[in-house]
Automatic annotation (TrEMBL):
Taxonomic path: Bacteria, Pseudomonadati, Pseudomonadota, Alphaproteobacteria, Sphingomonadales
InterPro entries: YhhQ (IPR003744)
HAMAP family named in the record: Q_prec_transport
Localization: Cell inner membrane
The protein, known as: Probable queuosine precursor transporter
Similarity-based family: Belongs to the vitamin uptake transporter (VUT/ECF) (TC 2.A.88) family. Q precursor transporter subfamily.
PANTHER family linked: QUEUOSINE PRECURSOR TRANSPORTER-RELATED (PTHR34300)
Keywords, ordered alphabetically: Cell inner membrane, Cell membrane, Membrane, Transmembrane, Transmembrane helix, Transport
Length: 249
């Protein structure tokens, strides 16, 4: 693709089949890294913050610190490179999460050396509960595809204008699906998780993730503008096959 600094040319996504982009691989790597970190560090921990107006502590999932960045990157992928290339990255992220879960199970299951006394702590940190892994993969897969689909459709509807409307709108839809799948599937009925807590954390996560998207909108504008200028194209998903069950571009 063109690497010029001029105004990017508006092109239909299906005309770029098989084309090479300068920064696409880097954006993919950032996306997969964020997904892996969010599953390792933040998925199962509930923290809390003090809300003065609420006059009480409010629980939230610790993954909120960085998981929403994956939706920002997902927005950038779809906006700059189109739905098909975003779809390819979502499948790469799904495969990476599944491989991480498998290797976590294998490494935790390996018999520890008698002189190494950290097995219990290691199991606490890296032990993957199958229910949570299933919930995480299903929620991530569905949420990211909804996010990408909504953004791609809205880009056509808006004629490429009002980027903020489709990044925020797609996040409302995608993060909503993600939270609706993950928290009930992972924690409903689990020890220490009441139904009220699951519902409370679910809606808190959804609201905070959308808020993150709003806060990071100026950054999204900068990154999208930079990539479009450097890649030399502005991709519209006209005539795109929106099935999620493909990896071709």
């Amino acid at each position: 693709m063109s690497q010029g600094e001029g105004k990017p040319a508006q092109v239909a996504a299906n005309t770029l089949r098989g084309g090479h982009f300068r920064y696409y691989d880097f954006v993919m790597a950032a996306f997969v890294a964020i997904i892996l970190l969010s599953n390792v560090l933040g998925a199962g921990k509930v923290s809390q913050i003090w809300l003065p107006l609420y006059n009480d502590y409010w629980p939230f999932g610790a993954g909120i610190l960085f998981f929403p960045v994956s939706y920002v990157i997902g927005d950038v992928l779809t906006e700059v490179y189109g739905y098909a290339r975003a779809r390819r990255v979502i499948w790469a992220g799904t495969g990476a999460v599944l491989f991480m879960a498998l290797m976590s199970w294998v490494v935790v299951a390996l018999p520890p050396a008698p002189s190494w006394g950290n097995q219990a702590a290691y199991e606490t940190i890296f032990g993957q509960v199958p229910r949570i892994v299933l919930a995480s993969v299903c929620a991530f897969w569905a949420g990211e595809f909804v996010n990408s689909y909504v953004l791609a459709r809205m880009k056509i509807w808006t004629g490429g204008r009002m980027l903020w409307s489709r990044t925020i709108g797609s996040t409302i839809a995608g993060e909503g699906i993600d939270s609706l799948i993950f928290y009930p599937l992972a924690f409903l009925g689990a020890e220490g998780w009441t139904t009220a807590l699951v519902i409370q954390v679910l809606f808190t996560q959804w609201a905070l993730k959308v808020a993150w998207e709003v806060i990071l909108t100026p950054v999204t504008y900068l990154v999208v503008g930079f990539l479009k200028r450097r890649e030399g194209v502005d991709v519209f998903d006209e005539g795109t096959d929106f099935t999620p069950f493909a990896t071709r571009v």
